[in-house]
Amino acid sequence: MKKIGMHKNFRLLAALLLALLLGNCSKDSEPDPDPIDRSGNLLATGESAVDLLANANFDELAIEIAYVEGFRPSDLALADLREFLTLRTFKNVIRFEFLPLPSPGEETLTLQEIAILENENRTIYNEGRTLGLYIFFADAPSSTDDPNGTTFTLGAVYRNTSMVLHESTIRELASKTDGINAAEIEASTLTHEFGHLFGLVNLGILEVNQHEDPDAANHCVEDGCLMQASLEFTQGMAKVLLDRAAKNFTVVPDLGPECLRDLQAAGGR
Questions:
Q1: Which pTM was predicted?
Q2: Dist. CA 74–CA 181, nearest whole Å
Q3: Phi/psi at 101 (nearest 5 deg)?
Q4: What domains sit in the chain, N to C, each tagged with a CATH number?
Q5: What is the pLDDT of residues 63-73, one digit of tens each?
Q6: How many Å apart are CA 212 and CA 205, to the nearest integer?
Q7: How far is residue 97's CA from residue 78's CA, in Å, rounded to a whole number?
């Protein structure tokens, strides 16, 4: 009888050890859960407008400057962007973090391809009281450009905290245009696209007075405003900046009165 009891105990012990072993193997094969909550940065353009402008939920901005090596934006343009954000938001801290990247090796880039590159490379997301943003400076032009035309895209927004600047196109425009430089084009494009992230025009915040361009959705009809549609494209950008330089104005445009009213009504400065 004792031998039978010992055999039973041995079988029970062996079964327990096997169960523990299988359990450990199963856990090892499961991927670790992603510790980063990306959901707040995967929304439509304009959905974070109020969070960008006011401090109820976020009082700091962390901006990841991702750039293909050799296509880093100028310090002057980033200084202009910092000043713009300081003037138009209530954020207490605005910091830039730089992420050099290898070239994706594409002749042109679609917004879908740019979003995929962001998913692979972005490291800064919303965390605590910090709102994370991502700006990619590409070495390839937009796939929507017409190689036989004269209008090429300089930048675009595609999520609530994401934008792309086609740095190669910006530099080409600067090289062909006397009187303006790449830093001025970068700054104008950056601030224009941030205007869209702020919800302008009629993109995430309401208009106090109607001023959306009937011929260009989400852009301003006011002459001289930063949110004019022409500032997204090469020929329009060159004309606006050259006209301002000829009048001895600050080359980089600012928001017009109606856009400023919209921002202030939504919680901005």
A1: 0.86
A2: 11
A3: -135, 150
A4: 39-265 (3.40.390.10)
A5: 999 999 999 99
A6: 12
A7: 11
